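To assess whether ligand presence alters the predicted conformation, the chain was also submitted together with nicotinamide-adenine-dinucleotide. Input:
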Amino acid sequence: MKSGFRWEATIIEDQFILKTKVYSNRQSLQYLKQIKGFRAFIVSDSIMESLGYLQQVVDYLSEAGISSTIFTGVRPDPDVALIADGLKLYRESGADVLVAIGGGSAIDSAKGILYFSWKFGSAEDEEIKKPLFIAIPSTSGTGSEVTDFSVITSVGEKVVVIDELIAPDIAILDSTCIQHVPQRVIADTGIDVLVHAIEAYVSTKATDFTDALAEKAIKLIFENLETLYKDPKNDDARDRVLNASCLAGMAFTNTGLGINHSLAHAIGGTFHLSHGRSNALLLNAVMEYNADLSGGACGSAAERYSKLAGVLQLPARTKREGAVNFMLAVKRLKKALGVEDHIRALGIDQAAFTNALEHMAETAALDRCTPTNPRQPSNDDLVQIFKKCF
Ligand SMILES: NC(=O)c1ccc[n+]([C@@H]2O[C@H](COP(=O)([O-])OP(=O)(O)OC[C@H]3O[C@@H](n4cnc5c(N)ncnc54)[C@H](O)[C@@H]3O)[C@@H](O)[C@H]2O)c1
Ligand SMILES: [Zn+2]
């Protein structure tokens, strides 16, 4: 999937795609009762099983006359071995409906299973047909329910697969599925949403269409994430953060992401940090790099950050003032969500970090999220960002 070259941002023509049909309210899980099909393959994890959501999905599908095969082998940050296990069961099941219920790890696992089943099945194999793919997020989140991205770990490195085949046909946003998310996961996944929206907004492929989605996602996050973190029983805040997650996903599936994600993939894969926390710890240093406010000049991203300050009604009389105020607002939000100031606060050994630096920077430079970053970094730039965050 990834070889030793930099991915180029290939822009054939301006296009904006939203393939996924979205159902969104607190009863929308029941939409499963109306699905047409014979057999479902459900990809999930043991937490979803123990919380009873999996049985609910099986019961609703059964009301639609659909029997289910269940795979609960998903672990955080799915790897190729997990995908291979799921793929074997999926093929044996003969399913015509593929359902993923869980966080980004479950949805990305289902995408991995679909991708490898499709791409590496024999052309003569009559059994391989594209299933109806339904994604039900239980975190808010990765936005994976509407994106054509999947992140799969291979030989200790996170590899981004991008293919329109794996964008779900249907997303069910039912916030009752996220009501038991632990507080730390609310913070991590919520900041991930913010990073998706910010990276989409400053991406080299941003358009008026994606800007509208990203701006709304950022507004919803600033208005609701801290409330949800402090009061996880707040139904309205939970609905809004779930919507923000999906909106940000719709934006970045069209724009790509940036080096915040490239660096987060590299450090998350190396030190097994959660995806959202990795992104959160890097966010301010990456924005400072992109804004490039040193020496009186402003990078192009500074203007975009300044526009986001305007969206949040922060003072933005000049590009610099707006960019600085937006970055400060992000810092304040991270603090309110209990995000550590530095990577070392997570207990990562300094010598191990220093040893891994060059390799992590190389991996980040080759990541598929790097070409759409507003400022193209050298490997040394990436090393310096890592050092600043440590
Ligand atoms: N495909 C994409 O577009 C995309 C975008 C961003 C991130 N990702 C990938 O997604 C993964 C991260 O996903 P995530 O942040 O959603 O975390 P996750 O899916 O790894 O879940 C984190 C933890 O929360 C638990 N959990 C999930 N839902 C819960 C619920 N409702 N109640 C209680 N516990 C629950 C999980 O069991 C797990 O232990 C990473 O591998 C990341 O690289 C993918
Ligand atoms: Zn992310």
